[in-house]
Structures are given as structure tokens and as C-alpha cells.
């Protein structure tokens, strides 16, 4: 059955020299019967290579040409080869059906099932359901050079959905005939005079899917903007979901093995990835260096799966870290900025796993980008030149950065850590002084946007809890450097803040705001270690907050403020806050339950996404560096290496300083 033609597709963002095109559904056909099926997502036109010799490929696939649903529809493409063996064929398929089977056959006669010389069937379930892209069939057939054969395709499904073989209506010189079998419309087989199906017979590695064009991509995978990262230490490149299908990282690296067996990586000094043979020395050198970096630190995890997830988190965080110390939240334009909050958690995770240089690099960047009043912008461009827009600054950074500095100091090599701390101390002093000065008569900080990046009209726990950790951290660091007056000043402020939190937030179970009018907030977990020493009532608050924020997909919403809805999306960082807190409180079973859910939501490359949609699938971006850092810190606690929380220093006695 012929499909609609002449429709201008919508181009979506892309990378790796390809784009994904989404053609609109339900467009009436320009030719053919009214029942012609709708379009499905398809990648863009591929370049046409010069045709010479056998007709064994036609790469253009901009149009859904023929339905291949049995029993009344099928399609076939004539082809010839120069060799004596066919080992693989590929077709460009689009399906809105999630279940069913697709069978490719090599026939001598398209219409004669008895003429089949090779056959291979795949299930749509195994491909991930509905989707589109190049679908490869390993197949074995002895053939005669120069003889015309037919690549026959037919699918079965119980769904009333479309399964189509794509191609082009553009003239293809010297091509062989494409055939459409439509019993109701043509009465049987019909030779197309203007359309040519997209196919490849014995494609060379450079033309295999996953190289310059995607393999069959399930539409569910397209809920995420990115699926992985390539990096060479100075540049980073995102892996699109459409190019992650069938690929896998080489263990201990950010080098990808493609379906063809070749490798994609970001060569040293390059800003764009290259596809190379499996034994390429540049790719191998990068793998060796990456594994050595991992071996120089610690990979936590109480099981093999958790160690693998921790390793991937470390490598992804390293890929997001820039040479100047900026830490990108993720690698897609809206996330390619450095937030003090995300960087703080990354610095702590790097330090705790033995990667001191990376941790200190982030803290130096914080020192370089601190504003004159001791605060930070909500986020900065990765070159450190300033904020990308007028987004309101967030006071919680004045807690997170000193806390991260304290955590780094605790883990740093003792030989020179005091000297290195002195280089950071002016930053800590400015941050802590601003935090202390911000406290009101009730001991609480002013209302400020927190990690939700939304303002509140009264103080929120997402700011108060980090500031408490930061003031306690700053006081302890001051003591270690002999800065007693600073230590006393910040310890007094920390005690005032602690009392304010106890008076305003604790009686309500540590809700989002001190007035209790904005629901529960996952930031309640910031009152537990390793952020803060846990008050006696925090365990009950964690249980009730977790129950209040739990979604049907098993993850958590950041909060349940009646005035703002997060929808059905679970946020992996917010969910991980509870794993981190419970692991450090010794509630191992609860922490492991959260981690099990988190790891079940990793994508096909093993990356942790920012969100999980209502269907339980990774969405937004992957990886998210913040979630990776939380995973690492949690795993350390579960294997018996918990991170400390800054101590709540006793108030100084009068006249002792």
C-alpha cells in the first residue's frame, strides 16, 4: 500500500552528523486508498553514494513507502551482488506497533515462498517496541554473482498499527525494481515505477547502523535528550539515544563499541568524535588511561552491578568536569552550565573516592567565580565568564561550597592539605560571613530560591539545611587553620540557625517552608548525614516525607507544593537524597531499596538519567552528574565507609577567645 508523500518533516536537534525527523501522524495520503497508514518517526535522508556494479543498496529513506503487515501486505526489493555469499541485510523500518514479528527473506521469486533461500525473524518486543531506523538481519545465503534476487519483508502483529518499509520517491539512477504487495489495493504484487525502498545487502562496516545513521530506535528511548558521553579530557560530546542503540562502552572507559564492532571515541585534542577500527591505537590509549585513572582511586559498591554503576558514574562525572574546574550538570545545551550545588556534590564524591585533583579543581573554580559579596550566581557559563541569563541567584550555594570544601579537606592527602586549604579560605570566609549575616531574628535565612530554582515567600529547608552544614564546616576549617575568631563567629551563627530550624521546621516534619504551606520537600534529607548531624526526629521525618513524595513509578517527586506540580516525573537526585541519608543513618534496607530502583532506571549504556517518566523510562538527560555523585556517596556508606557530617561546634564560653 503506498503511503502519503510530499509532507515536510519536523527536524529535531541532533548530533554525530545525523538528525531525527518526526513526520506528522494522520496525514491524508497524496496517493493510494484512504486507509493508508500514518507516518512514524524517521531519521533524515542519508547521502547518496555513487552507484556502480551490483545494485546492493539504496540508502534514502525519507518516506514511508509500503505497509508490510501480513497477510495482505508485503514488499520486496530486487538486488544483485558481486560475491557468492550474503551474510547480512538491512532495511529501513518504521513501526507504531509495539509487538509483533518482522521477517526478512531472500527469495529467487518475490511471489513464491518456496523459492526462499534464507530467512530471519526478529520480534518488535526485542527491539524495544514501536520505533524506526535501520534494522539489520544476520542471514546466511549462498548466491550467484550478478543474479537478481528479492529481499522480501513481511510483518505480523495483532495491533491495529502501522509497520512500514521506508524509502524514497526520488529517482535513483540504474536502480532495480521495488515491489509492493497489497491484495486489497493492487490485487497482488505491483512494481513501483517511481519509489525505491531503503535497503543494504552485505553492508560494509562503514555503512552499518550506528556509524553515521541510527539502528532501529524504539520511540521510548527518545524520551531522553542524551544517552551517554564521550570525552578526551578537554572536550565532551553527547551520545544521542538514537546512536546508543546496540552500542556499549568498552569497560572502564568512555569509548563506545558500535554494532559493527568498530569504536567511536573523542580523539585527543578533537572536538568531534571519530569511528575507528577496534584496534585503533588512539582509542586503545584512551581506554588504558581511563582505566589507570579509575585504578588510582576507589570504586565503591557492595555488588558487581553496583560497582559497575559506580564506575560509570565516576567516568561520567569526569567527562562533565572541565579543565578549568567548571562542572557541567549534563551535556545538553540547557544543562551545559556549572551550578555550585552540583559541583559541590561532585567535589565530595571525587574526594571520597580518591580523586583529589578533580575535587580541588572544582573548589578552585568556585573560588574564581564567587561574587564580591560572598555569594554565587545560580549557574555560570563553563568558561567561567559569568551567568548565561538573569536567573535569580541562590543562597544555598553559601552552604554547599564550604561543606564540600570541608569534605575535601577530610579526604585530602595530609601532607599539603593545610596549604591548599589556605588558598581556598578567603572563599570560605566570604561565604560563611554572608550566610551568618543573612540570618534573621528567628535564626533563619531569608526566603531564597533553592535547588528547585523557584522562589518561596518564607524560608525554605532547601536553603536552611545547606547553610547549617556550611557554617559548621566553615567553623571547623577555621579551627584547623587557627582562625579562632572566625570559628567562634560561624559556630554561633550555626547554633542560631540550628535553633531556628528546630523551632520552625522540626515540629512540622521539616516541610518545604517554615510556614508549612508548601508541602513536603525531599530536601528534608539534607538534615541527615553526611550533610548535617541528624536531629533525633529526622528519621521519622524522612519516612513520612518519602511516603508523601512517592510516585507510582517508584521514584520521588522533589516536593508536593500545592502551588506547583512536578507531574508524573520522578527526579533521580531527589530520590537519591533518601538513599544517601538512610545509608548514613544505618538504615541499610531502605537505602538499598532506593538504589535498586535507581539502578533499574539506568539506560542501555548504564547511565543515570535526570528524570524517570510516568511510564518508568529514563527521560530528560543522561547522565546527570549530581545523581552520579549521590550514588557514589551512598555506596561508600553501604560498604562501611560513610562520610562524616560537619560537627555542630559547642558555643564558645564568654572570654575564651
Structure description:
- With 657 residues, the protein is of the alpha+beta class.
- 30% of the residues lie in helices and 18% in strands.
- The strands form 7 sheets. Strands 4, 5, 7, 10, 12, 15, 16 and 17 form an 8-stranded antiparallel β-sheet that branches. The protein has a 6-stranded antiparallel β-sheet with strand order 9-8-11-6-13-14. The protein has a 4-stranded antiparallel β-sheet with strand order 20-21-22-23, with no helix packed on it.
- Strand 21 and strand 22 (263-265) form a beta hairpin.
- Helix 5 (340-352) runs antiparallel to helix 6 (356-369) and helix 12 packs parallel to helix 14.
- The protein is elongated and about 95 Å long.
Outline of the structure:
With 657 residues, this protein is of the alpha+beta class. Helix content is 30%, strand content 18%.
Mean model confidence by pLDDT: 91
Unreliable residue runs: 1-52
End-to-end CA span: 89 Å
Q: Beta-strand level of the residues, as a percent range?
A: 15-25%
Backbone structural class? alpha+beta
Rg computed from alpha carbons, rounded to a whole number of angstroms: 29 Å
> How many strands, which pairing sense, and closed or not: the largest β-sheet?
8 strands, antiparallel
Count of extended strands: 28
The backbone outline, from C-alpha atoms, is: elongated
Percent helix range: 25-40%
Total DSSP helices: 14
Amino acid at each position: 500500500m503506498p503511503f502519503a508523500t510530499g509532507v515536510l518533516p519536523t527536524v529535531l536537534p541532533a548530533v554525530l552528523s545525523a538528525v531525527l525527523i518526526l513526520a506528522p501522524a494522520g496525514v491524508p495520503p497524496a496517493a493510494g486508498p484512504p486507509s493508508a497508514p500514518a507516518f512514524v518517526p524517521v531519521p533524515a535522508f542519508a547521502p547518496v553514494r555513487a552507484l556502480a556494479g551490483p545494485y546492493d543498496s539504496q540508502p534514502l529513506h525519507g518516506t514511508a513507502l509500503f505497509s508490510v503487515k501480513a497477510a495482505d501486505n508485503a514488499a520486496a526489493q530486487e538486488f544483485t551482488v558481486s560475491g557468492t555469499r550474503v551474510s547480512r541485510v538491512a532495511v529501513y523500518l518504521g513501526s507504531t506497533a509495539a509487538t509483533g514479528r518482522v521477517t526478512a527473506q531472500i527469495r529467487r521469486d518475490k511471489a513464491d515462498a518456496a523459492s526462499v533461500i534464507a530467512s530471519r525473524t526478529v520480534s518488535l518486543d526485542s527491539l524495544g517496541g514501536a520505533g524506526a531506523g535501520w534494522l539489520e538481519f544476520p542471514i546466511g545465503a549462498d548466491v550467484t554473482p550478478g543474479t537478481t534476487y528479492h529481499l522480501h519483508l513481511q510483518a505480523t502483529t495483532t495491533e491495529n498499527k502501522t509497520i512500514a518499509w521506508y524509502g524514497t520517491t526520488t529517482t535513483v539512477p540504474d536502480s532495480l525494481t521495488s515491489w509492493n504487495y497489497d491484495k486489497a489495493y493492487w490485487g497482488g504484487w505491483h512494481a513501483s515505477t517511481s519509489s525505491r525502498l531503503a535497503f543494504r545487502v552485505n553492508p560494509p562496516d562503514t555503512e552499518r547502523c550506528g556509524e553515521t545513521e541510527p539502528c532501529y530506535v524504539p520511540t521510548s528511548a527518545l524520551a531522553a535528550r542524551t544517552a551517554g558521553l564521550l570525552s578526551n579530557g578537554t572536550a565532551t560530546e553527547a551520545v544521542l539515544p538514537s546512536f546508543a542503540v546496540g552500542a556499549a562502552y568498552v569497560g572502564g572507559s568512555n569509548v563506545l563499541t558500535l554494532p559493527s564492532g568498530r569504536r567511536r571515541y573523542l580523539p585527543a585534542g578533537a572536538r568531534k568524535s571519530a569511528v575507528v577500527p577496534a584496534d585503533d591505537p588512539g582509542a586503545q590509549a584512551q581506554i588504558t588511561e581511563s582505566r589507570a585513572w579509575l585504578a588510582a582511586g576507589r570504586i565503591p559498591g557492595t555488588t558487581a552491578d553496583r560497582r559497575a554503576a559506580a564506575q560509570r558514574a565516576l567516568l561520567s562525572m569526569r567527562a562533565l568536569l572541565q579543565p578549568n574546574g567548571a562542572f557541567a550538570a549534563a551535556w545538553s545545551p540547557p544543562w551545559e552550565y556549572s551550578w555550585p550545588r552540583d559541583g559541590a556534590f561532585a567535589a565530595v564524591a571525587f574526594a571520597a573516592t580518591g580523586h583529589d585533583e578533580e575535587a580541588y579543581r572544582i573548589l578552585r573554580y568556585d573560588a574564581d567565580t564567587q561574587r564580591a559579596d560572598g555569594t554565587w550566581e545560580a549557574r555560570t557559563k563553563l568558561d567561567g565568564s559569568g551567568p548565561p541569563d538573569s536567573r535569580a541567584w541562590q543562597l544555598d550555594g553559601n552552604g554547599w561550597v564550604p561543606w564540600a570544601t570541608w569534605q575535601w579537606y577530610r579526604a585530602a592527602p595530609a601532607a599539603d592539605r593545610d596549604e591548599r586549604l589556605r588558598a581556598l579560605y578567603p572563599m570560605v570566609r566570604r561565604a560563611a560571613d554572608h550566610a551568618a549575616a543573612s540570618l534573621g531574628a528567628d535564626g533563619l535565612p531569608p526566603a531564597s530560591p533553592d535547588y528547585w530554582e523557584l522562589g518561596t515567600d518564607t524560608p525554605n529547608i532547601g536553603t536552611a539545611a545547606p547553610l547549617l552544614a556550611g557554617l559548621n564546616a566553615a567553623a571547623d576549617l577555621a579551627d584547623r587553620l587557627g582562625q579562632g575568631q572566625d570559628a567562634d563567629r560561624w559556630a554561633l551563627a550555626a547554633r542560631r540557625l540550628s535553633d531556628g530550624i528546630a523551632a520552625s521546621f522540626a515540629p512540622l516534619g521539616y516541610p518545604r517552608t517554615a510556614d508549612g504551606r508548601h508541602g513536603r520537600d525531599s530536601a528534608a534529607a539534607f538534615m541527615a548525614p553526611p550533610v548535617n548531624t541528624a536531629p533525633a526526629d529526622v528519621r521519622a521525618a524522612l519516612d513520612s516525607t518519602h511516603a508523601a513524595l512517592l510516585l507510582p513509578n517508584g521514584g520521588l517527586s522533589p516536593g508536593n507544593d500545592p502551588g506547583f506540580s512536578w507531574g508524573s516525573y520522578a527526579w533521580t537526585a531527589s530520590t537519591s537524597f533518601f538513599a544517601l541519608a538512610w545509608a548514613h543513618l544505618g538504615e541499610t534496607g531502605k537505602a538499598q531499596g532506593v538504589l535498586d530502583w535507581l539502578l533499574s532506571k539506568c539506560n542501555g549504556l548504564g547511565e543515570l538519567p535526570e528524570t524517570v517518566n510516568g511510564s518508568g523510562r529514563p527521560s530528560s538527560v543522561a547522565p546527570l552528574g549530581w545523581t552520579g555523585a549521590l550514588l557514589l556517596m551512598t555506596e561508600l556508606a553501604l560498604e562501611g565507609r560513610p562520610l562524616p557530617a560537619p560537627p555542630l561546634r559547642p558555643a564558645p564560653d564568654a572570654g575564651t577567645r
